[in-house]
Amino acid sequence: MKTEGSRSTVARAPDGAAKSTAAPKAAEGGRKTAAASRRARELTIKGIPVSPGVIIGAVFDTSEVPPEAPRRRIQAGQVDGERQRLAAAVAASRKQVSKLKARLGVLPEEAQEELEPLLDAYAMMLGDSRLIRGARRRIGEELLGAETAVQDEAESIAATILATKDDDKPGLKRRAGEVREIARRLTRNLTATPFRSLKDVPAGAILVAEELTPADAALLDPTRIAGVATDEGGADGHTAIMLRALGIPSVLGCAGLTEAATRGDQAVLDGAAGTIVLRPGAAALETGREALAAYAKEKARLAKLRRLPSITQDGEEVELQANLEIPAELPLIAQAGAQGIGLLRTEFLFMNREDLPDEDAQVAAYTQVVEAMAGDCVTIRVLDWGGEKDMEALAEGIGPFHAGPNPALGLRGIRMLLKKPELLEAQFAAILRVAGTAAQQVTGQGAPAGQIRILLPMVTVPEEVRQAREIYERVGRRLRRKGVPLPEKMPLLGAMIETPGAALAADAIALEADFFAIGTNDLAMYTLAVDRAEAEVAHLYDPLHPAVLRLVQFATEAALRLRMPVSVCGEMAGNPRLVPLLLGLGIRALSMNASAIPRVKQMVRSLKIDDCARFARRVMEQGDPKRIQELVMGFGQDG
């Protein structure tokens, strides 16, 4: 060792003999050599499996420079200046969150459903929240610098959350993490510390980091980043949910990973096993290749189903369609073998822009989708804005709407469109123009080049469909007077059944609508009074609750009595386990994320309708959700 100040080159051993400092230096060099040797050896690190898939690729490590924000006190005369700094950081943070929300349109549906309520929570915390009020108070009363005030208030709130008596510990940790994440963002903006950049990650790399925030995950490009592994994190956090939604093979909670990994190291990541092997030797590499081949074989087996019909063993056809968020997803729909688009969400047209899309812009967007589907049906849902959705173009273009204390129960969906009919008229006109062009483009067999349907969101009473149809027919008459070519038969006008009121009034709504699309996500939420984004009650969300199933059954039977098309377009549609039940209830059309179609088709092709009908009757006799879950999971195992 060295003496104080490292001034002497000679140190005394305990026996008084002189000892050269070369020995400690040699030992230090030996330690470095040993560390380098360890870095050259194969190392398997076990973590938490988060998103399945096997990847062999090069490591790309990325770190985030921590902000320099030591505890700081101020003078009384500096209070106003610190509060102004805090206000500027809040404004910058709100702008960053707004940009992240604008990016939602390019993410898969599951990722949007996870990130949107989280970003809404961030936006609320950056408003007149306890965090901001508390930080301002601490600046004035405790004379703390803005960074210190933010950190102290965030930790106080997080401690209160974590001390709550609740069995849902992961949920409490997520909520506390949300508060700390906003504090982290404010601190970085207060100190002008740059955020993590993912722009330079090479294609095919395995991204390695200490930890990824949900905002980081939202910036990942699944076409470039092959896998993700981190030191921190777990299977229940927002980041894990985002990674699963993005379909990126991932392992989190790999202790010591960033210390052991070097950029450029070859690695084998297995998202299902929860392992990452750094610098694999021949045996580990061969094992990884075998696992990768098995994974690819399974994907290829499912891909072969694309060319096979979606038909039960007793000859009943089941229409499998895809939900579409943005036109960029069209190649994925084609690869999945979808029989059309059962739900085209048009919100992408209104996001990430400062003005409302005009009729021509909408025509161009719908035309792209209809032409890509080459004759398959496209169901276009008109704008579903309100509740938790926030679109700058709408706020600027049609004036602000007061969200109210409970936005989910406020002015949203068809309610908002009927209050602002100019929005509905523009969408109807654009869709009719596209339908007219499609009807003129006839194939050699005489079939129209594209069948188009229109879907109304958030319908609760028959009168809403009647009012919408009046606007629809008025727009059609106006276009005909102008000489705009329209199809001989107007596209069907359908209603989404996504509230208990709509399901219970399905008989009456069916007399006004041309078809039903049952949105099971919102239907379950409103029936059970559960917001899946709220950690305290998320465990109560259950689409197999008997109340939800009875509403699905009621709406389906109302449509079938009038020989009217009816489909399911919520998450239930994409779950192969639930297909026997849905078919047994009479559903013959399912719309889902494109990635779910192969496995659902595989299930359809293994079923007989009579078996499904008997199974559905058995399930609908049950009153216990747990028993229903047991029956669904055990289908086909008792005979």
From TrEMBL:
Q: Which cofactor does it need?
A: Mg(2+)
* Residue sites binding phosphoenolpyruvate per the record: R345, R381, N521, D522, R532
Q: Which residues bind Mg(2+)?
A: E498, D522
Can you supply a Gene Ontology BP term from the record? phosphoenolpyruvate-dependent sugar phosphotransferase system
Any idea of its EC number?
2.7.3.9
User: Subcellular localization, per the record?
Assistant: Cytoplasm
Tell me any Pfam family this protein matches. PEP-utilisers_N
Q: What class of enzyme is it?
A: transferase
In this chain the Phosphotransferase system enzyme I N-terminal domain maps to: 46-166
User: Compositional bias of type Low complexity: which residue ranges?
Assistant: 17-27
Give a yes or no for keyword Metal-binding in this entry. yes
Question: Which GO MF term does the entry hold, naming one?
Answer: metal ion binding
Active-site residues annotated for this sequence: H238, C569
Q: Which residues form the PEP-utilising enzyme C-terminal domain?
A: 299-607
Reported function: General (non sugar-specific) component of the phosphoenolpyruvate-dependent sugar phosphotransferase system (sugar PTS). This major carbohydrate active-transport system catalyzes the phosphorylation of incoming sugar substrates concomitantly with their translocation across the cell membrane. Enzyme I transfers the phosphoryl group from phosphoenolpyruvate (PEP) to the phosphoryl carrier protein (HPr).
Q: Report the protein name in the record.
A: Phosphoenolpyruvate-protein phosphotransferase
Organism of this sequence: Teichococcus wenyumeiae
- What gene is this protein translated from? ptsP
